[in-house]
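Fold this complex.
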Amino acid sequence: MSLLELDRVASCRGSGVALENVSLTIDPGEMIVVWGERRSGRSTLLRIAAGIEPPDEGTVRFGGRDLADRGSEILGDEIGYCRRGFRPERGLTVLDQLISSQFARKVPQATALTRACLALERVGAAWCSQLPARDLKTEETVVVAIARALTAEPRLLVVDEPTIGVDPLKRDDILKLLRSLADDGVAILASAGEGTAMLGADRVLSLGKGTLRGELSPDLAPVTELERHRQARG
Amino acid sequence: MTSPVNWTILGLVIERPSYGLELANRFQRVYADVLPLSGDSHVYSALNMLEAREMIEIVSRTKVDRQPKPHYRATPVGISSYEDWLVEQIDAQNRSQELWVRQLAIFAHDPRLALQLLDRYEHRFLKDAGAAGYLPAGSGLDSREELIDGLVAEQRRVAVGGMLSWLRYARARFEALAGSGDGDEPART
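Structure:
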């Protein structure tokens, strides 16, 4: 049984079709990047996969259970959805943001502090814990957003365009971070509008006119760990 | 001079004045995956040609086991010619891409077949896209080899995005053609 399964999902936008008959499965430890141009439906696909919005047709199952039956409880817990924005009411510093974002899930303060510190450590951003969140550079914002999602120890991490607007020389650090999280067993579903954001993906899919193309199931695309990428190359 | 091997050897001499055997070794190390070398003798014949065209010159000759061992360096003519050749390579790349597109376009008479072919091509293309331009851990821009790795990786990854965009466009064009029923008549043999 796959961790996440989209079965014949469709989504409409006004008079147009954002997704049409999309089926996709993701296993633990897989990193999947969905490439698409603007208005291709890639963000819609990610929001539906994360359970943020329901599909108009089809089903989305996480761990074998229909997301429609589980409501929003799963979001932010087993499924982490990275949002770049910071809410001012959640505190000034990066650490404040990571701690207070857990309160909605009723995490005790001491536990929230521990998880926040561990998550920042994991993404290599412990150094910026006391910085004002609004002062972060783009790439730092992305990494901290990933850390914030990791505080819930999700099994699936959904990231919409993780490298957009990021300094080219910092971009690979973010992609390698996502790859390393996948190697640790977290499934990663990311979107990309450019070829440079596909680094390290086990599967790259393309989305256009609502149709998803590529290896839609992991059976034909075995998970490739970071070390094997390295060996294959050199 | 049309041989890419000869131009590549000239580039290696420009990078660092060298002996023939050292050039052969560097060639294998840097270009083995992308430009096959038939043997070390190819390097020596290339050096002779480059010297005859005054693109390189002998700096010194030392003897090893009674064999003369010339040490080559690039001349200003060689450096200038190499720069011109590099810039002209854009034409070769464009021709290669145009050739492929023209070969695909023979299916204009049957746009549905062309669309199937595009699907197959994209499927195959996506299969390796995640590994395209992979950079090993620890890469930075603090050494020559890492710089080359980084530049090659970025070029491949940008190309992946460009090709996916082109496939989207090509599909739209063939879909429009299929919808209009304006496919050309197939060639008769």
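The interface with chain A takes residues 119, 122-123, 126-127, 129-137, 139, 141, 153-154, 157-165, 167-168, 171 of chain B (CB under 8 Å).
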